[in-house]
Specification:
Shape: elongated
Number of strands: 14
Strand order of the largest sheet: 1-2-3-4-8-7-6-5
Helix content: 25-40%
Strand content: 25-35%
Distance between the termini: 89 Å
Structural class: alpha+beta
Order of helices and strands: EEEEEEEEHEEEEHHEHEHHH
Number of helices: 7
Length: 340
Amino acid sequence: MAELVIARNPDPGSSLGFLLWLPLGDGLLFRTSDTWPRTKALYCHPAEPDEWPAGDDLEVVERVGLRSCARRGAAIDVVLDRSRENRSQIVYTRGRGRDMVFWQSPRTRKQARPQVRTPTARAVGAGGDEIEIVVDAHERYPYRFASQQVRIVRRALAAGDYGLVLGDALVASVERKSLPDLISSVASGRLRFALGELAALPRAAVVVEDRWSQVFAQRHVRPAQVADSLAELQVRWPGVPIVFAETRPLAEEWTYRFLAAALAWAHDEHVIGARLPGATSELPGSTAPSPPPSPSTAEVRAWARAAGIDVPERGRLRPDVWTRYREAHRDATEGADDRR
């Protein structure tokens, strides 16, 4: 049976007093500070295999059989053949401008990424009513809001992935992003257009299903460039916060409470606005004229093809296509008003 072996480091001048041997490939050797990551993740310094002591210099502290030792992406999953302290990971990451390796257990990983239980109490803004949340039809694996009193409606949204619609108006929306999707949309410029559309709404936000610190753990992009781009986007559109929510359940909980608060805000705005001279209401039941309904994607696609604009046969349309559609129809409406 393959074994994980821990021996004492024969170098008395080293602050890393142990050697960790893993039988992966030709063998991996690390210098580390303890025999197991019990209270914190242990820093591991990669060493050459010939540093493994021989003869009288070898003082084995622990030798444990392995059930599994396999590399998955940037981590090595290690499962020992014992009942306690049997699961751990060797994680390759980057920090302080250089490659780093850490040895972590489920307990120390939980401290860095807490598995908290989200509350089931209704948001204050929801009152005692069920909230209707509109989920964009293109959202493949949407939040279910199973622990909250929410009614989900699937249909296309002009901006964001989860919206709050009052009457015919989209009054709040949340764009959901995984960390890879966030970084990809920053690099391609898609996030800039998305924030521009969200900024046109009364209330909007972007929620990210990961930690802010993970931006700096990326190896295939320049973390500083991503961080600078996010900062520039926040300065340009300060009314659309980008919130890092650590995990998908926490991002779902934040989305629900944001939309519930936006609902309460919209109702308060309506009540206050109705008391002002000359005010009109856009809420259901109002005698004021309703705004024209938003065009469907099919309508905009047909217009774009007639105008000679290259668009895909299915899926979402680019933000610039929607912008040109709105500008063209606004110009047509203004021209009709002038002729009158």
